[in-house]
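Reproducibility note. Readers wishing to regenerate the assembly model reported in the main text can use the exact inputs given here. Chain order matters: entities are listed in the order in which they were concatenated for prediction.
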Amino acid sequence: MAEKKILLQEREIPKAWYNVLPDLPGSLPPELHPGTKKPLVPEDLLPIFPMACIEQEMSPQHRIDIPEEVLKVYTQYRPTPLRRAYRLEEAIGTSAKIYYKDESLSPPGSHKPNTAVAQAYYNKKEGVKRLATETGAGQWGSALAFACRMFGLECTIYMVGISYDQKPYRRFLAQSWGAEMFRSPSNRTEFGKKTRKEDPDCLGSLGIAISEAIEDAATHEDTKYSIGSVVNHVLLHQTIVGLEVEKQLDKVGEKPDIMIGCVGGGSNFSGFFLPFLPRKLAGENIRFIAVEPTACPSLTRGPYRYDFGDTAGTGPVVKMFTLGHSFVPPPIHAGGLRYHGDAPILCHLLKLGLIEAQAYHQKEVFDAALLFTQTEGFLPAPETAHATKAVIEEAKKAKPGTVIVFNHSGHGYFDLGAYDTYFRGKLEDYAYPQEKIEEALKSLPEVEEV
Amino acid sequence: MAEKKILLQEREIPKAWYNVLPDLPGSLPPELHPGTKKPLVPEDLLPIFPMACIEQEMSPQHRIDIPEEVLKVYTQYRPTPLRRAYRLEEAIGTSAKIYYKDESLSPPGSHKPNTAVAQAYYNKKEGVKRLATETGAGQWGSALAFACRMFGLECTIYMVGISYDQKPYRRFLAQSWGAEMFRSPSNRTEFGKKTRKEDPDCLGSLGIAISEAIEDAATHEDTKYSIGSVVNHVLLHQTIVGLEVEKQLDKVGEKPDIMIGCVGGGSNFSGFFLPFLPRKLAGENIRFIAVEPTACPSLTRGPYRYDFGDTAGTGPVVKMFTLGHSFVPPPIHAGGLRYHGDAPILCHLLKLGLIEAQAYHQKEVFDAALLFTQTEGFLPAPETAHATKAVIEEAKKAKPGTVIVFNHSGHGYFDLGAYDTYFRGKLEDYAYPQEKIEEALKSLPEVEEV
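Running the prediction on these inputs yields the following structure tokens for the assembly.
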């Protein structure tokens, strides 16, 4: 039996990110200003992002060098292993080969620091003292806390109220890296105060928390805003994942036939497969499958429309498959996948038929998670398990020798409460009614399509 | 800067464990039968352990081959990285070199599966269907659950009542590998029933849980008992850690000057340093430092006496530095270090002056944990952080170039409640009074010393 773990030495880490923008077929619809609805210019983003990230957001270069200081932090936990899932293959009874990229070994336990570290570095370099962000269950918040600590930046996190109360562990983790955490809506921002005044018992939402973080950044000279998914430069930073996979598969002489990842905002899946997109564009037979929850079916059921990325409607307007920015997804345990839209790059590729999308219910997803845990040993996050489910389904019907690769984007150590609910048979599936989607779509901004 | 992560490829994993028994100077005091107080013979242990482990307990061989099937599971998570702690060195301002072996990347998050996997394999091979064990906070229980799942064995875990109630996450983790968990004292055993009858509100203790697990094994033909530390064969299995470290240090041309580990029962520290003991016996200048909590100061304040390994007094009687088997340690957060005695091999070496022992209070230990987290990024378990504290102290006073290596035995993802207590300034130190030790020592069994 060949080795299960394909390792790269530290010196083999990719030295540049892959920027898909110049390779994209068709033209990516521009991001629009939330007020004027005209295409964004770099200056519009300066109050919230550092110049380096704004440039990356629109860069025409194929490769963007990873700064030495970023590589120094990446190598605290990267390169990550690519593993062959022999035991899972055996349990499924497939003659396909299954590989998984293990992004769960980073200090915060997911792929999130790949962009957090880059963003913290560029902000530090441009003289920023503090980063503000929002977090739901805490994956992104804890990743940014880690990154800020590595570069000596302060970090302020607005955490969705109900998660702040119910899921304290990732909050404590972020605190252990020195971040200050506020229960959102907070008394720190005007928007937070206003929200609390209107509803003193408000449990918060990601939309409210984003608005608080953006306000914090926009109203403090030394502070910028940091975002964990969706936008182009975040996807760019995540390509370190796919670039490593490319080297690792080369080492064992394999080529991927199917690449699978879960999608919330789309950054882990995109970072994983985008470096392989040129192969498909060159005619290679390779499938890219995005997996989302049926409870939040933007890619599989949403229309391709211009919408706000944030609930409050203060951020850029982008074209994406969306359920409407006022959409409130059911309380599934894969909190990281409860987003109304998806990364514009990913949506553009879906529209062009270059990627596929599938949706699964959470019970079958937890079944898949358990099979993975009981064979491979590692407990996936509920988000990640969406990919695992799709892998199992594809492996069952695959021709012998098919190479299926997926992104094991994070561990489930902080999600054991959800597993307990599943063990007790209390997990619920949500069949999302079409009327609710229609209703939510009424909130879309009016945009003159080019 | 040289590479931070020293990796071994899967094929480089050591193929045999190192057995220290034939190399031990002096003669290791024999283990005694709890009833007769005469030296144990292999048959005495057969009702609870498989023959292969009993043979290892007394083996005269220097190297014991690791079975192929065990290596196959080891390589699900091994070899583990050895990391150079550049950032920690910089923060301390030391010119010593600090390396740490990262055992936190295993599926259960600690070094514990190294022996769990071996024990599960040998039991499976000898026809055993089920393993029973006890667990406190759950590190050991979850590791055995993982190992049993890998070999298709059933697993029954008696979990200390108060931990069962207050620390459910590691319980859910064990359940995700299919283990059945009972709150101890349970209604499954005579001893459990008796205990509950006497005290219906009993919160349990490790001693009670051990007694339940041993009774379960002894009263079921198809069931054996499995233990996570203290005994010789557990230390043997853990030497995979030190043997890997040896290869990794060789790769970078380093020799350790100081090796440090935390000690509860003694298995992680012993597995880490024992392969280096022959160097010291051959005259090399190398220090081995065991670190324990001041709240449970067996190595630093206990006398070297024969005592029961378990509270109920049903297991073997062994010679060790002990606080007495009736000793109930204060409720420090490093639950894995709350053991009244230590591994006989380790105690023998301490008695001979071949190793040193140090004790630290938990507040200073958490300070060290936080410094490590904020520099290296990884959050250590409170147990592990005892080693980290000693490393920092040694590094501060070390000569330039001194090579300090320690065992990062587990992560603290499941201990964030304890970190929160620390952040809130609510952590307490315990200065253990001499009278309590004197009192506990009255419970020592009467043994005729040879």
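We highlight two features of this model. The CA atoms of residues 306 and 446 of chain B lie 8 Å apart. Chain B touches chain A through 41 residues (CB under 8 Å).
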